[in-house]
Amino acid sequence: MDDLLIVGCVSDNPTVADMVQYMNQQEDYSDIISLKTFLNTEFCPRFIVDESDWKNIGRKLEGKKVLIVSTSVQIITRNDLAMRNFLVARAARDNGAEKVILLEPDLFYSAQDRGPRPEHGVTDFKRDLADYKKFDGQPFSARLYADLLKVSGVDEVVTVHNHSHSVKHIFMDRFSGYFHNLQPSDVYASYMKDSDIVDENNLVLCAPDKGAESFVYEVKEELGNPEIPVLLLSKERMDEREVEIEVATDSPASLDDVEGREVVVIDDMVRTGHTVTEACKLIKTASPRRVVLFVTHFYSSREGRINLNDPSIDEIVTTNTIPQILNRDSQGRLRHKMVVLMLERWISHYILEMMGYPIAGLTKPLYREDMSSKNPRWKGRMGPLFSTTYIQ
User: Which fold has domain 185-342+363-371?
Assistant: First the structure.
């Protein structure tokens, strides 16, 4: 893989370090690119070159593919990180890189996936006046981000579990189909089978809203058991902080089907935690044995931690697409019921396969489990699922 260079847009990023290891890059990513900030605060990345070599100036990356690994970090805003992405991509392209790929597990600006006019976004639902008004006066930021990445020199984008129909349409269009939205359904199914999180023979899978339905069925397929019941819920948002949850009229399973069973609620992201907490409260009224929330993108906030600490949720499984969640302070009072599945090996496996490189060294499981010793399931556990790497 001498033609692939893996870099980040910040100097100390454990996600980048793990990707370098799993993708067998011999050179440290910090030795490939210098991330300078001038006294006037302008960011200026520079791919490191031999200062005594005056040949092929501006062409030192010819024949190389550059993979930019971009994740949110605590000390730099997403706006700043986005600008860094543009400049690192531009530096690669202006120095001859054959291809530039952006890996951004939690794709920036995805929540701003439409604008105030009919041509601002392609949705899988009929927009009403209230939806247009919600974005009145705002930019169509997701499209702008895609446009700026493209003009900066990015050829291909890889992300994880983005459920926005509009974002997927924008990025597939802007990058001519070279947009990869990795679905961790196999990771979730594997964890349910390989760990003691649930009894897979006594499961009910639940989608807390319409947007999660297709992914829940993907997880069911990966589990390989067509007899697992699926409970579909629907929500009606009353205001910014209040939702009403009920069983969807087309739900294959009813609340009666969850009694004595272990229910896994699956969603793509949680911010305030209001919707999933209300969904779990409804499920708890039917006397399940246990309710576990699986959520890919976990935005840790004080409000979210308070809501998700509700006794209706017995355990939370998330991923490190937003790496700060590995910090025990970010987990806060939830550390006693939280598990983080680290996805670097899984993502590396996909990218290597996508680019036609060997993947023999990446053995299963393609994730690592991280949990606090406060979790009752911890029991001093070690082994291939468990990670002793922490972000402090």
Answer: Rossmann fold (3.40.50)
pLDDT tens, 193-224? Answer: 999 999 999 999 999 999 999 999 999 999 99
User: Do 387 and 21 meet the contact criterion of CB atoms below 8 Å apart?
Assistant: no
Q: C-alpha angle with apex 215: 359 to 16, nearest 5 degrees?
A: 40
Architecture label for domain 4-182:
3-Layer(aba) Sandwich (3.40)
Residue 178: exposed, middle, or buried by beta-carbon count in 10 A (0-12, 13-18, 19+)? Answer: middle
Determine the distance from the C-alpha atom of residue 200 to the mean position of all C-alpha atoms in its chain, rounded to a whole number. 24
d(CA 67, CA 315): 35
Closest listed residue to residue 184, CA positions, set 320, 357, 315: 320
SS3 at position 201: helix
Task: State residue 379's pLDDT score.
Answer: 76
pLDDT tens profile 269-300: 999 999 999 999 999 999 999 999 999 999 98
Q: How far, in whole angstroms, is CA 373 from its chain's centroid?
A: 25
CB-based contact 391:324 (threshold 8 Å)? yes
For the chain, residues classed under CATH 3.40.50.2020 are 4-182, 185-342+363-371
Judged against a pLDDT cut of 60, whether residue 388 lies above it is answered with no
DSSP 386: B
What is the distance between the alpha carbons of residues 369 and 10, in angstroms, rounded to a whole number?
A: 25
Q: What are the helix (H) ranges across the chain?
A: 14-22, 78-94, 129-134, 141-152, 165-174, 185-194, 213-223, 274-284, 302-308, 328-331, 344-355
How far apart are the C-alpha atoms of 28 and 20, rounded to whole Å? 7
Question: Residue 31: helix, strand or coil by DSSP?
Answer: helix
Query: Cα 195 vs. chain centroid, distance in angstroms?
Result: 22
Q: What is the mean pLDDT of the chain?
A: 93
Residue 37 has, within 13 A of its CA and on its CB side, a CA count of 8
| DSSP-assigned beta bridge partners for residue 245 | 235
Residue 215 contacts residue 184 (beta carbons within 8 Å): no
Query: Could you tell me what percent of the chain has a pLDDT over 70?
Result: 95
